[in-house]
Amino acid sequence: MKKHTCTFIMMAGLYLICSCTRGTPEQKKIPVETVMVIHGGAGVIRQTEMNGEKEQLYRDKLQEALMAGFNLLKEGGSSLDAVQAAINIMEDSPLFNAGKGAVFAANGKNEMDAAIMDGKTGQAGAVTCVRHVKNPIDLARLVMEKSEHVLLSGEGAEEFAREQGLTLMPEEYFFTEYRWQQLIRAREKEKQMMDSLAQNKSGTVGALALDRNGNLAAGTSTGGRTNKRYGRIGDTPLIGAGTYADNKSCAVSATGHGEYFIRGVVAYDIAAMIEYRGFSLNEAVQEAIHKKLTRAGGSGGVIALDARGNIAMTFNTEGMYRGYIRGNEEAVILLYKE
Amino acid sequence: MKKHTCTFIMMAGLYLICSCTRGTPEQKKIPVETVMVIHGGAGVIRQTEMNGEKEQLYRDKLQEALMAGFNLLKEGGSSLDAVQAAINIMEDSPLFNAGKGAVFAANGKNEMDAAIMDGKTGQAGAVTCVRHVKNPIDLARLVMEKSEHVLLSGEGAEEFAREQGLTLMPEEYFFTEYRWQQLIRAREKEKQMMDSLAQNKSGTVGALALDRNGNLAAGTSTGGRTNKRYGRIGDTPLIGAGTYADNKSCAVSATGHGEYFIRGVVAYDIAAMIEYRGFSLNEAVQEAIHKKLTRAGGSGGVIALDARGNIAMTFNTEGMYRGYIRGNEEAVILLYKE
């Protein structure tokens, strides 16, 4: 019996060593130096409505955002700087529902939200219902680093932005004909009692980064939902709902129908399934999106990244604009299901 | 060896059965019909500054709130109704930092937040930065039941309140000499570069209920922090941070230094430790407050309740106004550590 026991223990030990080094299929074998992952929203333009020229515009801008972050990482920059840089590119583009391209609320105004979280320290900053801040993710970072608060809203948040010398823009800056027409259409549809949800294309942007020091960061920025009620806050600026980062588990940025992400505390739930249930990153993300979110009737997706460089990009919508680049591999940009 | 194995399996089975039926020390043996738990804030008036008359005022009001909810439960009312009724009593009292007694932000205004969550359906509603709503918890419930959103803020939230016929009050209603003096003192202290945190007595109120149908509900209502930055949002209205309920795990309402509760996603973390790590309610709450929150440097406490009627009331401050009543037991009201 003693011999059997020894053999069993040896085999179990060997199995454990093998499990750790070889990784499950979705795990990376070799520790990677730096990783950048971004999204430009789930439930976006339908594949059938997309043409080659439009698609190229999106691909180019996603590539530009991805590389803006990744180049910083390669130079030894922090994951926070990389996340912010990638999101800034998307905020400054009219293609996405964040910053310049923010959608219109029901009252014809733009209201933007953003959040950023540092996976090393657990510090976080977020803003909601800001209307004149050119780059809401910059303000979220200032809230994290220069205030004693985590979440600031509306005029109070903009007052803080002014104190910190951030660029404020007149409302006209955020006016884009495309988003305005989207509101007009949404209003018309509402009159016809049609399901307004189908019109609420998200286009929220997000970024995750793993830097040379092994630190994760996550950030998300959005203009909310077209024709939403004035003052509605979605999941984006809520730590644990739409944005979360912890070196111990993972970094997550979500996009989609925010109310479902708030009730499900989706971003933190993914981290909790990794930390408490021992799920791999991919298992946790699959469970969160294809089981829990889908069962609840919610639509959307997440990008997720752990400190070993594993990446997950999952959605239950027709598409999610997304991209990643890892170590010395080629950048990958995807718009629809592959 | 076979005999040994059988004996082992039998003993293990017996142990499991014993564990399940006898319960750990903090578990209730007998399923209880209805339970009500409330808090009136952690980090409140110091025991040394409290006198007999003042203490009686607090005890009486806590008892009134507790019984307002519990009486509804006994009559077969829902946990949501009970939570709302208990919080209404505390919101209408100047003794607590919610509704009538809300503290003043740095700009001399009152800004109130509230949230409610249904443990059966996972539905939730919350409001933030409202300034004229007499009972913010009522508005949170309307957001849950009459809107497609979870979280509404500021003027947009008040516009919705008007549409729903809720009572709005002029700003003067929320003026209490005590809170005003607290702001004056906080401002003076700030000038003297003293630690403003010590002055930020919370006094947030919260309630949890378990009804006859075995459904949990949680609610929290607050005026925020004295001398806080205008537009600051704390943990109270954030589902998963200061308020959470799920029949599968537990209901939680938090009070304290909100930023720490947001970053730690404390309310949902307690639920996740129960669901994913198999912790008892008490183990989860101890871990969340005395380990995680304390290590992070945060102060505050939570009340928690599970669907078997187990109660936990834990804080790392000098006191937390709190009370509970379960089945046919006597109501218990506590102010400080016991």
List the topology elements.
The structure is a homodimer of 338-residue chains.
Chain A: H1 2-22, E1 35-42, H2 52-74, H3 79-91, E2 112-118, E3 124-130, H4 136-146, E4 151-153, H5 154-163, H6 177-191, E5 205-210, E6 216-222, E7 232-233, E8 243-245, E9 251-256, H7 258-263, H8 266-277, H9 281-296, E10 300-305, E11 311-315, E12 319-326, E13 332-336
Parallel strand pairs in A: 3-4
Antiparallel strand pairs in A: 1-5, 1-12, 2-3, 2-6, 5-6, 8-9, 9-10, 10-11, 12-13
Helix pairs in contact in A: 2-3, 3-4, 8-9
Describe this structure in words.
The structure is a homodimer of 338-residue chains. About 10% of the residues of chain A have low confidence. Helix content of chain A is 38%, strand content 22%. The radius of gyration of chain A is 20 Å and the shape is globular. The first copy, chain A, is an alpha+beta fold. Chains A and B meet through strand 3, strand 4, helix 5, strand 7 and helix 7 of A and strand 3, strand 4, helix 5, strand 7 and helix 7 of B.
